[in-house]
Amino acid sequence: MSELEVVPDREPNSNESELERDDGIEAPADGAADEQFAFDVNDFPGGARSAIEAVLMVVDEPITEISLASALELPVDDVRGHLTELEAEYAAQQRGFTLRSVAGGWRIYSRSDYAPVVEKFLLDGQQAKLTQASLETLAVIAYRQPISRSRVSAVRGVNVDGVVRTLLNRGLIEELGADGDGGAFLYGTTDYFLQRLGLGSIDELPALAPYLPEVDVLDEIAEQGRG
């Protein structure tokens, strides 16, 4: 026999699982997954109530009493009782959060009394005023939408690429497709823009449009600028 002996692969046994044949790892026996998650909520340090809190802390939408009862293997009535007690406990302790039943489910929310604190945290740095250049660019887009950047630049007499990016990032304008002739992106205002101005539609904008050049004039100005 040579020093290096090649041993042929053995034929797989028909009784072996695919997982065993592929990498030698035995597939879990039936019911192993159930055993892995088997528990008694009463064995946890805080019992059923703490287990309910743990679940509530990770849901991103209201969870029903039935879903909680199923996950924790508890009667629905017991779950409902724990939820009611937790709601009362949070209120009595004047916690910064509360437990509320909304849309048929339960979820933890920040207490409305602390809305000013939460709003300041969430909006800090987001209320910076727009520059004059941004306001002028936004006005042109609002009154002449859909409009391309080159036409906006023609009105303002400067390159507006950076300002347009800022307005896009702030959610005040959006792309509305491409110009059928030149293929340039067209921009218009968003619903958020209307919300910030307290308007129901673009039609409610003040009568400023007559003071802005018409589209064909904008094209002429843009062509002159490129020349």
UniProtKB/TrEMBL annotation:
Origin superkingdom: Bacteria
Pfam families reported for this sequence: SMC_ScpB (PF04079)
GO BP annotation list: cell division; chromosome separation
Cytoplasm as UniProt keyword: yes
Region Disordered, residue ranges: 1-30
Lipid biosynthesis is among the record's keywords: no
Keywords: Cell cycle, Cell division, Chromosome partition, Cytoplasm
SUPFAM superfamilies: Winged helix' DNA-binding domain
InterPro entries: ScpB_csome_segregation, WH-like_DNA-bd_sf, WH_DNA-bd_sf
Annotated PANTHER family: SEGREGATION AND CONDENSATION PROTEIN B
Protein name, UniProt field: SMC-Scp complex subunit ScpB
Protein species of origin: Pedococcus bigeumensis
Lineage, top ranks: Bacteria, Bacillati, Actinomycetota, Actinomycetes, Micrococcales
